[in-house]
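Final report, Chapter 2: Outcomes

The project's central promise was a pipeline that accepts a single protein chain and returns its three-dimensional structure in a standardized token representation, suitable for archiving and comparison. That pipeline is now operational. To close this chapter, we reproduce one record exactly as it appears in the project archive, with the input sequence first and the structure output second.
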Amino acid sequence: MAYVFPPALPVSLPIVGRTERFPVRRVYCVGQNYSDHIAEMGGNLREPPFFFSKPSDALAPGDGEVVYPTQTEDYQHEIELVVAIGEGGREIAAGRALAHVFGYAVGLDMTRRDLQRQAKERQQPWEMCKGADQSAPISPLFPVAQAGHPCRGVIWLKVNGVEKQRGDLAQMIWKPAEIIANLSAYIALAPGDLIFTGTPAGVSAVTRGDVLEGGVDGLGTLNVRVV
């Protein structure tokens, strides 16, 4: 097949303990899935989960540098558990949803918070506040065979060595199985999809030169420097 210019290489992630890589298809995110974060953002508890997307090429290795984007003066961190889908499906029942999971990772949902506020006020889409270049740093994937299905454990983030976020996966309002069930009611999931599952309270702005270190119990850490 001929193209007018070379197509972009597929986005992929390293897998802990394996030489193969995980090819990424789509990146979905869950909004406000920890009660303390909902409180700090002024939302209501246990509403049906809502979803937004990031472009797959917003992913960045969770061990290096990420660029502070243009058009914002309030770029904020959100540390999250990431679910990697290994088997697709539509209208997946929550009771069998975890069988569709390939593995888990630690991710950052970096957000142009000032643009997000404007989008909320004007009832506009979130693409430009959530989809900045390198706005999704992510660690290598841990297969289910190694990590199991994390349902509790500390999730945390430090900025320049100062702790900003700390919660527990048990505090998630919608658990990974419920998230998969809800999302697959809207669209067909496929192998290669990633789902960022929400963040605990403590989100705050970063600036150029800041070093972010975060992790989830059993899934290691990620370390990025904002440049």
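Archive annotation: The CA atoms of residues 215 and 221 lie 4 Å apart.
This record, like all others produced under the grant, will remain available to the consortium after the project formally closes.
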